[in-house]
Design a protein that fits this description.
Elements lengths: L64 E7 L2 H14 L2 E7 L2 H11 L3 E5 L5 H13 L4 E6 L4 H10 L3 E4 L4 H18 L7 E7 L6 H15 L5 E5 L20 H6 L6 H7 L1 E4 L2 E4 L5 H4 L4 H14 L2 E6 L5 H9 L2 E6 L3 H16 L7 E8 L7 H8 L3 E6 L2 H10 L3 H4 L4 H13 L4 H5 L3 H7 L2
Parallel strand pairs: 1-2, 1-3, 3-4, 4-5, 6-10, 6-11, 7-9, 7-10, 11-12, 12-13
Antiparallel strand pairs: 8-9
Helix pairs in contact: 1-5, 2-3, 6-16, 10-11
């Protein structure tokens, strides 16, 4: 930041400072848009400190720090909001909520700092707080409580709460606490690695895409116990992905979650999965056509937002139809696996589908071809397929009809049923390529003591 205001800019031409009734005294930033780095509202009102570089965790007035205030008491919430509005330049969002609602509110609004008042006073609520902190490692948490015993403070420290303040609190004290909390999180929290999103779509019915999607998820999760995997069945009219790898029944499905999208958080999502392994679950498709009509593209986007924050790999089983819901899922995917078999109807439909994908802007780096039920001496060769479709084949999955049929009929993953089968070998090779560093391990909060030890 320059040391002094530019002499070519008069005081009268400067924007009014949000923190004082006077023109801004601070120099313009080197930004081409001439944004102003205001020290008044960042707690640097002393003009003699204009030469001090702005702290990294403080933003300029164009992009104020986003602070979400949560309290079950509407009156208390209004007072906190008024106190902070009077002393700081924050983007404030006051929300009335209970301990069971905090996680969902945080995931939807993604603040820089979360201030909770009068929410976590009972031991039964602490588990919800810890889940929220683990799921959102980049968010600083300031807790307000009326009773601060040593045991309570120690428990908050272990759970990763950034700061604890006694109630009642003044606006200036809360403002300083928020700024300290944000600085601490910026220093000790690494940027969270979000999970990879893989969409799988068949060129036509009978391609075997759901079998491959369900069993690929199992292969990744079984080979990497620390990696969390979810399969979301987006075949909204008649999908049955969970039956390929489990005999469990779904508590919720994509459609029922869509009707409660405002409550959706990682806890609700986890409780809705058909659990195949401790680290692998399937979210079932809608149970009937009427339910499917209620699912909108924005529901799918929010569902993926929540899934990708709490899982290392998100697999989407997407139907062949190019409709708004499917396109939203495909847009979000990092990669798209197109599954076909080596017969003329499949190849013809694959060419149409790839044309649709090009029109949607999906380049060759995003789309990969998977040949299912591949025979070693086919009538149509791989070279023929590649020349016709204009792109290379990424992977071939061998034809192993007997074991695949048994796996489907019994609802047992083929890797468990027939670990030496050629299909299992191929799936495990693909799983190795999809292995991701564990987002949970990278996001594990260290608490106050660990931060002190690291200094």
């Amino acid at each position: 930041m320059p040391a002094a205001p530019s002499p070519s800019i008069s005081a009268s031409s400067r924007p009014t400072c949000p923190g004082t009734p006077l023109p801004c005294r601070c120099p313009p930033s080197p930004c081409p848009q001439k944004r102003w780095a205001c020290f008044e509202t960042a707690g640097h009102a002393d003009q003699s400190r204009d030469n001090t570089p702005q702290n990294k965790y403080l933003r300029n007035p164009i992009q104020p720090m986003k602070v979400v205030l949560i309290s079950p008491d509407q009156t208390e919430l209004g007072q906190l909001n008024a106190q902070l509005a009077a002393v700081g330049n924050f983007d404030l969002l006051p929300l009335q909520g209970t301990d069971l609602e905090v996680g969902g509110l945080v995931e939807r609004h993604q603040p820089d700092v979360l201030v909770v008042d009068g929410v976590y006073q009972e031991n039964s609520a602490f588990e919800q707080l810890e889940k929220t902190i683990v799921a959102n490692p980049g968010i600083a948490v300031v807790l307000l409580a009326k009773t601060l015993t040593p045991e309570f403070l120690l428990q908050m420290m272990r759970m990763g709460v950034t700061e604890v303040l006694p109630q009642p609190v003044t606006g200036h004290v809360l403002k300083e606490s928020i700024e300290r909390a944000r600085q601490r999180v910026a220093v000790k929290k690494p940027s969270r690695r979000q999970g990879k999103i893989l969409a799988m779509v068949g060129c036509k019915g009978g391609s075997g895409v759901t079998f491959l999607a369900a069993n690929l998820g199992y292969a990744v999760a079984s080979a990497n116990p620390n990696q969390r995997v979810i399969l979301i069945d987006l075949n909204l009219q008649g999908g049955d992905a969970e039956l390929f790898v489990s005999d469990g029944r779904a508590a919720n499905n994509v459609a029922s979650i869509a009707t409660e999208i405002n409550r959706l958080d990682s806890t609700l999502l986890e409780s809705s999965l058909v659990r195949v392994l401790p680290n692998y679950g399937v979210l079932a498709a809608a149970q009937d056509t009427h339910e499917a009509f209620a699912v909108k593209p924005e529901h799918i986007s929010q569902l993926i937002d929540v899934a990708v924050k709490s899982h290392d790999l998100v697999i989407l089983d997407v139907p062949r139809s190019v409709d708004p819901v499917s396109v939203k899922a495909l847009d979000r995917a990092n990669e798209i696996y197109v599954v076909l078999q080596m017969t003329l109807p499949f190849i013809r439909d694959a060419k149409k589908l790839l044309g649709d994908f090009r029109a949607l802007g999906y380049g060759p780096s995003k789309v990969r071809l998977i040949i299912n039920r591949y025979e070693k001496e086919p009538e149509i060769t791989l070279r023929d397929v590649q020349q016709t479709l204009g792109m290379p084949v990424y992977r071939t999955v061998p034809n192993s009809y007997r074991n695949v049929a048994t796996s489907v009929n019994q609802g047992i993953p083929i890797a468990r049923l027939a670990p030496r089968d050629p299909v299992t070998k191929t799936l495990m090779e693909m799983a190795g390529e999809l292995k991701q560093p564990s987002a949970k391990a990278a996001a594990e909060p260290k608490g106050w003591l660990s931060a002190l030890k690291g200094r």
